Amino acid sequence: MIKIYIYVIRNVSSRNTSIKLNNEYKTILAIQYPRQDPDLNVLPTNKFYQTLDDANGIDVYYKDCPTVKSVYNDHSDHHKFCATVVKSLKTLYNIPNYNIHKHLLCDYWNYWLYDRAIDKFKITNANISYSYIITYIFYDLDIVNKSIPSHQKCSYTNYNVSVEKFLQEKKFFDDNQKYENIKTIINSDNYTKYNKFFTYITENGDLYSKIKKECHCNNEEKFCVEFHKYNAENGKDQLCSLNCDSLQSSTDTKETPKRVCPLTERVKEVPEALPPLLPENVPVVNSVPETTPPTNMNPVTISSIVVSILFFFFLCYKVRISFICEY
């Protein structure tokens, strides 16, 4: 009877703990993994993470995970994940990196490893480094790293932070990498769906602050010009005025148009209604004549007035002398 009672208490306690962890995990996911537009999947950052997920051919890497195998059994989910991690580490410098700089490959790999472990095994530890699966994988990776050439090794990072803190850090890293991805794509004219990209940037507080700081009104880089076009065409804050022949978006035409919108000056206030544009090379004719007298006089006019005054005084002087003599 006592054993049954203890079993029931433990079972209820374990179930409550599981419910609590699941709720915490769902809260973390809701905050850190918002829905993203499928068009963002073309970005190198997302494509590289997807490549690391590839589990094809992991059979040859099971032998590199003896610790995980002994704890979680052969070909278990944990064992499969370890084999995928080993594969990604051994082939990291050989897989397509989608123009990601080599000095960032290990950062990507570390973020990917922790992120996938959190997602797959619902890790909610206050300190992520204390997670059992990550600890056991790193035991095996210590041995794997010894067989990798020194210039292709990746030192794994011990993130002594909570899961939520780690996910925030990864999100910050990913957002900034995607920002650079977008800038490179737009400047190279390799894509046309700019609106999706700028929607992503402007809806992210940190990235929006970054692009406003970078795309000052003297920056005529295509990335910045397209950003200001996007603002003008979508009713966003117009941070800079555009001197445009047309505000037609470059996404509306298949051919790459010439840039016709050099950036000019920062707009302090955008009026509710803008005056109609005047055609080029047409003189402006005022409908109401100027009534304000000119402030500057012609030098010839001034000289004539002075001479006239002197001549008048001279005549007066001659008349006065003549009058005195007669008297």
Question: Care to describe what's here?
Answer:
InterPro entries: Plasmodium_Vir. This is Variable surface protein. The chain crosses the membrane at residues 297-317. It comes from Plasmodium vivax (strain Brazil I). With 327 residues, this protein is mainly α. Among the domains are: 38-167, no CATH class; 192-272, no CATH class. 54% of the residues lie in helices and 2% in strands. It is built from eleven helices and two strands. The protein has a two-stranded antiparallel ribbon with strand order 1-2. Helix 3 (66-72) packs antiparallel against helix 6 (132-145), helix 4 (77-90) runs antiparallel to helix 5 (105-121) and helix 4 packs parallel to helix 6 (132-145). Residues 1-19, 245-260, 262-274, 277-295 and 323-327 have low confidence and may be disordered.
Summarize the structure.
It holds the Pfam family Plasmodium_Vir. 54% of the residues lie in helices and 2% in strands. By secondary structure, it is mainly alpha-helical.
